[in-house]
Amino acid sequence: MDTHDTNTHDAHANPHDSRTSPHDSHANPSAPDARPVLEGPDIARVLTRIAHEIVERAKGADDVVLLGIPTRGVFLAQRLAVKLEQVTDRKVPVGSLDITMYRDDLRMHPPRALARTEIPGDGIDGRLVVLVDDVLFSGRTIRAALDALNDIGRPRAVQLAVLVDRGHRELPIRADYVGKNLPTSLRETVKVQLSEEDGRDTVLLGVKPTGQ
Fold first, then answer.
1. CA 108 to CA 161: how far, in whole Å?
2. If DSSP codes are grouped into helix, strand and coil, which group holds residue 185?
């Protein structure tokens, strides 16, 4: 999580995060050496696979609620809800969970605009909540998401689905559903682009320029 508006949701809460440090997984998205590691059809396929995995583990997904972490996690959650409806023939509640005020680096960076938290009408108490994000990095964004969730309700369980896991965890957090495990160095950048926000679907792997 990174800065919400730059796609690496795993770094939100740490000055050494992908969003705020030399390890920013969404820095310099137009770097000439950036190469695609996932394209639109790949993203669609992995979301279909994740939907089937959720149904299998949840034994039908009857009590599943999807909560996306802004920004791109929300779009992924919405797409995943469509996939789950295709698999189960029932609508799966989907919403968003803003973690801005739960980040542990709030005092270290300029103020940021709050994103939206939208909880489905039936709430999350007693439900299986699947948090959805684009990139899992340090784990600090997910820690913040768990804190935010705790203030909203009491799910029976919480799981995590991510499009990309790039490694370098700083907290004991792992994803239950992963679109692609992408081993990276701390100098590499991971940029997720989605059509709803960026006009195209792709995941780019690049290298942060020396000196930044």
1. 28
2. coil
Q: Are 125 and 153 in contact (CB under 8 A)?
A: yes
What is each CA distance from 173 to 33, 34, 73, 114, 138, in whole angstroms?
Answer: 31, 28, 17, 25, 9
Residue type, position 179, single letter: G
Angstrom distance (rounded) from CA 192 to CA 175:
17
pTM of structure: 0.83
Report cis status (omega within 30 of 0) of the bond before 3. no
DSSP codes, 3-37: -GGGT-TTSTT-TTSTTTSTT-TTS-TT-TT-EEE
Spell out the residues 6+ positions from residue 184 whose beta carbon is closer than 8 angstroms to its own.
25, 166, 167, 168, 190, 205
Q: How much is the CA Rg of the chain, to the nearest whole Å?
A: 16
Residue 25 has pLDDT above 60, yes or no: no
Q: CA–CA separation, 206 vs 212, rounded Å?
A: 14
Average pLDDT over residues 140-152: 95
